[in-house]
Amino acid sequence: MEAEALFRRQCAASLNEDGTTDGQRLVRLVIDTYREQAGSIRSLERHANLTLEENEALQVLLNQANRSLTEQSHLLEIVLNHLPLGLCIFDSEQRLIVSNIRFQQLFGLEADDTRAGTSISSLITKIDGLEKPEVRAATREGRADGGRIRRREWEMNDGRIIQSVVTVLPDGSNISIHADITDDRKAAERIAFLAHHDPLTGLPNRIRFREQLDMALGARKPDDQIALIHLNLDRFKSVNNTLGVSAGDKILRQVADRLRALAGKSNILARLGSDEFAILQCGREQPWNVMALADQIRRELSEPFFRGEKAVELSVSMGIAVCPKDGTETELLLKHAGVALSHAKSGGRRGERFFSSEMEAQLEARHALEADLRRAVHNEEFELHYQPLYDMAERRICGFEALLRWSHPTRGRIAPMEFIPLAEEVGLIVDIGRWVLKRACTDAATWPADIKVAVNVSAIQFISSDLEEDVSAALAASELAPERLEIEITESVLMENRDEALPILHALRQRGIRISMDDFGTGYSSLSYLSSFPFDKIKIDKSFVNDIVDNKEAFAIMRAIILLGNALGMRVTVEGVETAQQHDLLAQEACDEIQGYHISSPRPAFDVPQLLAGSQRSGKAQAV
User: Fold this and answer.
1) Number of domains observed in the structure of the chain
2) 273 and 350, same structural domain?
3) Which value, to the nearest 10 degrees, does the dihedral of the CA atoms of residues 423, 427, 429, 432 take?
4) pTM of the complete model
5) Domain range holding 573?
6) Are 603 and 507 members of one domain?
């Protein structure tokens, strides 16, 4: 009852202009707030003075309001302390009103350090108690209501980066939120690094190298010379194909480490692509210093690389352009170094070339030829000519070697040595080789059953195509018996792709297809490859035949190879036989087969029946 009287006195303490008291307004406010929870007390609005029943109803509402406030306070505390962000609120005198646990964790504070009423300067002192954190960045911006927003980053002693956003209200109070952005910042820095660096080697990438070249050319004095080396690992794709990409990546890292040691701090090194690198040499006398650097690179990269216990040998081709002679602009210098590299690779690899104006004209001609070659592949503008293989014992033609020919619509006949290396370099040899297999088998299917056909296969076809499938498709389409097909390879197939090529060769041989090694004796390791695979035939290169009539040493080498083939159970074919004297000497040595202009030049497919008929009538080796 005392509480009721006190409440009545408070309600009647003052009257408003409309005759109501502040107490009555309070009652109305509470009633409005909790009307849905206490619909039965709406009648209280109609009375200026409180009855006993009305007072009891009001007490119920006040108790409900108190419970609701307690629940809301508890809920607010849960929300604050489970926020992933640190939060704190300061009044206009910069004293702490409230903060959460995450704020304490971010700045290494205890609960006692963040009691309500603690000044902001005291908090900062406690944070500084460890060591003063470094301010990384700070910005300000205004608000429409007269307040302002401050942003700041702190680098803590443990390496963390804390970002603070402080909203200062017009009355001077402020609300601040704080976040640990260490992981986000590292991720952003990593993304920025990867945008300008190669993730495998850590070297600058092509984008960053162009920027560095721009800066070097921009800072160049009139008398300064700048040398650019564009280098490429020769046939590195075969490493990935034989050892796997993972092993290839390890070797590339070793290459980068060696180049980094050679380049030193005075030169700029970058990785431009999969197996391409570049070095920028500034402030040196040229071309002498870049020649010395290129020589070091060539010698260093020729040393074996190791993948486990297995040694991998590489070679490198380099193109060099020197500013200002070869250009003073980034694009031009890069282009000319690339042109020089193309000439180094087309010239046999394993060396370096300096750019010259003649190279550019030659490169443009090469690009034109490449475009024509692509069109020829698409339109099947090629044809096959066939050169006889002559059996010395049976004194008759026993087969033909298929030789590719290209008659250009405007250029005329283009020599194979001019377009086949280009086709290998740009990957067109795969499509060309597939066409040759199909065409040769189709033609051979029209010949007598005892006449075979020999087809040359490039090392690239073992890498970039399914050779077994291509052979199967050609045999199936032509219905040619497998034993009538002979695949000729050079030792480069085994030298560059040994682990991958041998299973393919064995699979082909098991089907009855004959395998022969072409150009035997021209490579430094031909003998070792004879022991790695049971070839059906070896073909002695014509360079050994030229002097066998007049040169005893040449004849002795020829005799030794024939004896070797016989001892290993391999047939021996001698290429390039052009005279009767050469034929007679080889007949004395029990040579199995000969091939050359003494028998016949390569002839179109429609001449094959005539060649076979002439061979059967003559019964002896002579030009037909």
Assistant:
1) 4
2) yes
3) -100
4) 0.56
5) 368-607
6) yes
Query: Same domain for 300 and 287?
Result: yes
Report how far residue 571's alpha carbon sits from residue 346's, in angstroms, rounded to the nearest whole number. 34
Backbone angles phi, psi at 207, to 5 degrees: -60, -50
More confident position, 147 or 287:
287
Whether 512 and 375 map to the same domain: the answer is yes
Are residues 467 and 377 part of one domain?
yes
Where does 14-116 show beta strands of DSSP type E?
Answer: 86-90, 96-99
Q: What residue type is 548 in one-letter code?
A: I
Percent of the chain with pLDDT over 90: 32
What is the reported pLDDT for 230? 95
Question: Residue 542 sits in a domain of what CATH number?
Answer: 3.20.20.450
On whether both 239 and 100 belong to a single domain, the answer is: no
> Please, which contacts does 377-382 make with residues 24 or more away whose CB atoms are closer than 8 Å?
377/428, 377/431, 377/432, 377/435, 380/435, 381/406, 381/407, 381/408, 381/409, 382/406, 382/432, 382/435, 382/436
Residues 220, 323: contact at Cβ < 8 Å?
yes
Question: What pLDDT score was predicted for residue 574?
Answer: 92
Alpha-carbon torsion angle 36, 40, 46, 49, nearest 10: -110
Coil, helix or strand at residue 94 = coil
Token pair of 111, please? 């609960």
Tokens of 11: 């309600």
Range from 155-164, 280-289, 480-489 that averages highest in pLDDT: 480-489
Terminal alpha carbon distance of the chain: 139
Same domain, 111 and 61: no
Cα-based distances in Å from 140 to 145, 154, 311, 505: 15, 15, 61, 73
CA distance 553 to 548: 8
Residue pair 595/538 in contact (Cβ under 8 Å)? The answer is: no
Residue 344: phi and psi, rounded to 5, are -65, -40
Q: Are strands 310-312 and 316-323 parallel, antiparallel or unpaired?
A: unpaired
